[in-house]
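wait is this the right file?? whatever heres the structure
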């Protein structure tokens, strides 16, 4: 007989043939060893290096965003825009917190956070900006936020269920970047 709410022509598989929800005991046993790998267990998967690389590019992006917002904070102050200048500093501090969280996750994955100033600009998805005009500053920041939103969205899709801790971290950061972009869009309209 067809299961309730199931069309009559859908055949139910025997229980034995359905995928069972059982743990991989071998992987649990393997987790008892290689203690120097910390939080990374043998079942983590072959994508560790790729995820560390993606995170390091995001780290570079966040650091460049800190530098751009700091530059704008100090120069916008002189343009009689103290409110927006203060908001640039708020954004700078939030991007700095993003960088710290990403660096911490890279280390947790057994990687090395790359803060090298020589390659920051080339690895960053977003650009630095030293515009002197307030509107141009807001626009440059909005472009950078939109670039970050696109990069984080793609990373979240790529990571999927391969690393739920990293995915949640990126989802958290993404929602901050979306708030930043909304604010900048409003300032640009005013
Ligand atoms: Fe950020
Ligand atoms: Fe942002």
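ok assuming it is, sequence goes like this
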């Amino acid at each position: 007989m067809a299961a309730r709410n199931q069309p009559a022509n859908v055949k139910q598989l025997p229980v034995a043939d359905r995928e069972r929800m059982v743990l991989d005991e071998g992987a649990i046993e393997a987790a008892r060893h290689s203690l120097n790998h910390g939080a990374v267990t043998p079942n983590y998967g072959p994508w560790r290096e790729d995820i560390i690389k993606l995170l390091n590019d995001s780290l570079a992006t966040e650091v460049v965003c800190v530098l751009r917002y700091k530059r704008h904070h100090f120069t916008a102050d002189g343009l009689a825009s103290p409110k927006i200048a203060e908001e640039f500093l708020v954004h700078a501090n939030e991007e700095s917190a993003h960088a710290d969280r990403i660096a911490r996750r890279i280390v947790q994955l057994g990687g090395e956070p790359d803060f090298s100033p020589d390659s920051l600009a080339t690895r960053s998805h977003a650009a630095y900006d030293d515009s002197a005009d307030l509107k141009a500053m807001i626009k440059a920041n909005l472009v950078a936020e939109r670039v970050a939103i696109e990069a984080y969205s793609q990373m979240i899709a790529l990571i999927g269920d391969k690393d739920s801790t990293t995915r949640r971290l990126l989802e958290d950061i993404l929602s901050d970047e979306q708030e930043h972009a909304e604010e900048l869009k409003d300032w640009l309209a005013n």
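The helical segments are 25-30, 48-76, 82-108, 120-123, 134-159, 164-189. so i think its the right one actually
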